[in-house]
Amino acid sequence: MLIAILTDIHANREALTACLAHAAERGAQRYAFLGDLVGYGADPAWVVDTVREHVQQGAIAVSGNHDVAVLQEPGKHMNPQARAVVEWTRAQLDESQLAFLAGLPLTAEASGCLFVHASAAEPRQWEYITGTNEAVKSMHATRCRVTFCGHVHEPALYNLSMTGKISSFVPTGDSSIPLVTLRRWLVIPGSVGQPRDGNPAACYALYDDNSHELIYFRVPYDYETAAAKIRAAGLPQSLSNRLLQGV
C-alpha cells in the first residue's frame, strides 16, 4: 500500500491542498497525518475538517504539541508568537473540531510502522529529533522497524544497523530510497505548512509498505496567498515572512 506521510500542516490550506493533490496523482492509497494540524497559519478550521474527512475514510492521524496547546494551556517552552496564534486558533474552531483534536492519539501503529509527532521515547514531552542521539533513543523506544515523525520542520532520515551503527543524511526531493529490512529507520518528511530549510516548497513523503520504498517530495504551492491570509488575520508578521522565505 502506498501511504502519504504529511506532518506539521500548521493551518496552511494552500500547502495541504497542493500536497494532497500531488499524492493523489501518484496513487496514494492511504494517508498519515503526524500532528500539528493547527498553529501558525490562518486556516485551522479548514485543515481540521479536511484531516477529519480523511480519518473517516481510513487515514491515520496523531496529535502534535500545537494541537494539544489549543485544548489546554500552552507548554512553558512555546514562544510568545506561537502562544498568540494558539489563542486565536482556539476561537476559530467549533466544538466538534476541538473534540476531534482532543481525540487524536499520541502514537499509532500500522503496516509495521510507528507514527508519532515527536520522539517515540516520550511522545508527550515533544522532544525534537535533531541528531543521532535523539534518533537512536526514539528508535529504541518502539518495536516497529520504521518510525515516521515530524516536529522538526526539516527533512531528515536516520537508520540503525543490526550492530548498532547509526547514520543519517538529508534526503533530496523526488529521490527513491529503499528502506532495507536489515536496518531500522526513522523518517522525518519535513513540514507541509511551514518548511524551515530555506526552501518554501511544501514537504511530504510517500512510503510503499510492500516494496519498502520511500520518496521525499517538495511541492510548490501558493505561499504568497497563505502568507497574505496570515497578515489579514492579524497574526504575527514574522509568521507570514517565514512562509515566503522557508525559514
UniProtKB/TrEMBL annotation:
Residues 1-208 form the Calcineurin-like phosphoesterase domain. CDD domains: MPP_superfamily (cd00838). InterPro entries: Ap4A_hydrolase, Calcineurin-like_PHP_lpxH, Metallo-depent_PP-like, Pesterase_MJ0912. SUPFAM superfamilies: Metallo-dependent phosphatases. One of its GO terms (cellular component) is cytoplasm. It holds the Pfam family Metallophos_2. GO terms for molecular function: phosphatase activity. Belongs to the metallophosphoesterase superfamily. YfcE family. This is Metallophosphoesterase. It comes from Noviherbaspirillum autotrophicum.
